[in-house]
């Protein structure tokens, strides 16, 4: 009788320990698949004192964006009232244009990095108002320097 109980105890313990190992491994995998890490970004306004860049800065784009990685490209591609010397050893400049059907109050930015791939997404949210002005705005963000293999996607949201 004691032998049967002992065997049942061993079988039961083995089943429980296997289930716990599987659960912990699955949770680690799921956490990475679901986890995006927020990354701090800044702007030309915050770092270099530029003013009202959504109206005062121009780049020859239409409904698109580009990544500027050096001062020479910035000087050649971007015009306007603010032409700072950007620290491109620390930053890449994401800059784009968006045409809107009514007025704009603010633009919000959130940069996230996918934990598994390392790729990043910049979410640009245009918070609109009821004015009838239909602006063609320049948006931008200074982000930490991208790695050679990192990809960046820009997602536009109009509220």
Question: What would you note in describing this structure?
Answer:
Strand 6 (104-114) and strand 7 (120-128) form a beta hairpin. This protein has 2 domains: 1-34; 36-158, no CATH class. The radius of gyration is 25 Å and the shape is elongated. The longest helix is centred in the N-terminal third of the chain and has 33 residues, at 2-34. The strands form 3 sheets. A 4-stranded mixed sheet has the order 1-6-7-9. A 3-stranded antiparallel sheet has the order 3-5-8. The chain has a two-stranded antiparallel ribbon with strand order 2-4. The chain has 159 residues and is an alpha+beta fold. It has helices at residues 2-34, 44-48, 53-56, 71-77, and strands at residues 36-39, 57-59, 65-68, 78-80, 91-99, 104-114, 120-128, 136-144, 152-158.
Low-confidence stretches: 18-29
SSE order: HEHHEEHEEEEEE
Shape: elongated
**Radius of gyration, taken over Cα atoms and rounded to an integer in Å:** 25 Å
Approximate strand percentage: 35-45%
What is the count of helical runs? Answer: 4
Mean pLDDT: 86
Number of domains: 2
User: Structural class per helix/strand content?
Assistant: alpha+beta
Largest sheet: 4 strands, mixed
> How many beta-strand runs?
9
- Distance from first to last alpha carbon: 72 Å
Helical fraction equals 25-40%
Strand order of the largest sheet: 1-6-7-9
């Amino acid at each position: 009788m004691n032998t049967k109980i002992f065997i049942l105890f061993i079988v039961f313990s083995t089943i429980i320990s296997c289930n716990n190992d599987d659960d912990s491994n699955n949770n680690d995998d799921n956490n990475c698949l679901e986890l995006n890490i927020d990354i701090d970004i800044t702007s030309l306004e915050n770092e270099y004192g530029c003013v009202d860049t959504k109206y005062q800065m121009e780049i020859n784009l239409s409904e698109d964006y580009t990544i500027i990685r050096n001062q020479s490209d910035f000087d050649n591609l971007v015009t306007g009232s603010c032409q700072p010397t950007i620290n491109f050893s620390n930053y890449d400049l994401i800059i784009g244009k968006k045409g809107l059907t009514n007025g704009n109050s603010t633009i919000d930015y959130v940069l996230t990095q996918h934990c598994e791939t390392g790729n990043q997404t910049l979410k640009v949210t245009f918070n609109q108002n009821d004015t009838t002005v239909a602006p063609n705005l320049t948006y931008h963000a200074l982000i930490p320097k991208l790695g050679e293999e990192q990809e960046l996607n820009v997602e536009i949201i109009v509220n």
